[in-house]
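Try this one yourself first.
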């Protein structure tokens, strides 16, 4: 658990950014006027063999976060689940998205299948998230924008100079160095 909680949050004047995965939840606040991060919370749990148990624990964590109550100016939710297939636009078929995910990752009986279109990269990112989690977030943040973490990385325009991208996981990190 890592928390830097702000002294005061006015939801209507604050943007909320949430990242959620099977065993972690993190979020931060950005007052609309200041464009600075005013609070950060990172919560990690143990990974179980049973995915539904992990999701139940994540839902429980979400319910316990009193700072997430209210209607925020903007809310962005990033999913960070491994069930993701970036697909070139030229071969993408939305009617087969669920079948493609099932072929690679197994049964999606209790999953919501979502798609991010990255027009600039000519890619669709098809991914699944636990339906209970997605429905919970939809009901609590009806105006939220949703995307997969991989979509954000694919769609990001890299500067012409050298850059380093780092993704932090509970027990590891992945680096990409470009422009050397």
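Now uncover the answer:
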């Amino acid at each position: 658990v890592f928390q830097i909680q702000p002294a005061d949050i006015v939801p209507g004047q604050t943007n909320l950014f949430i990242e959620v995965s099977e065993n972690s939840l993190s979020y931060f606040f950005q007052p609309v006027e200041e464009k600075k991060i005013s609070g950060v919370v990172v919560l990690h749990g143990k990974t179980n063999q049973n995915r539904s148990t992990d999701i139940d624990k994540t839902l429980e964590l979400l319910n316990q976060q009193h700072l997430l109550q209210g209607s925020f100016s903007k809310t962005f939710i990033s999913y960070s689940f491994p069930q993701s297939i970036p697909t070139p636009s030229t071969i993408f078929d939305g009617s087969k998205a669920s079948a493609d995910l099932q072929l690679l990752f197994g049964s999606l009986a209790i999953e919501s299948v979502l798609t991010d279109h990255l027009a600039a990269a000519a890619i669709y990112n098809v991914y699944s998230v636990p339906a209970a989690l997605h429905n919970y977030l939809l009901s609590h943040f009806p105006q939220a924008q949703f995307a997969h973490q991989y979509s954000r990385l694919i769609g990001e325009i890299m500067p012409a100079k050298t850059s380093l991208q780092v993704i932090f996981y509970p027990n590891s990190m992945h680096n990409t160095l470009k422009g050397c």
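Discussion: The helical segments are 51-64, 97-105, 131-140, 149-155. The radius of gyration is 17 Å.
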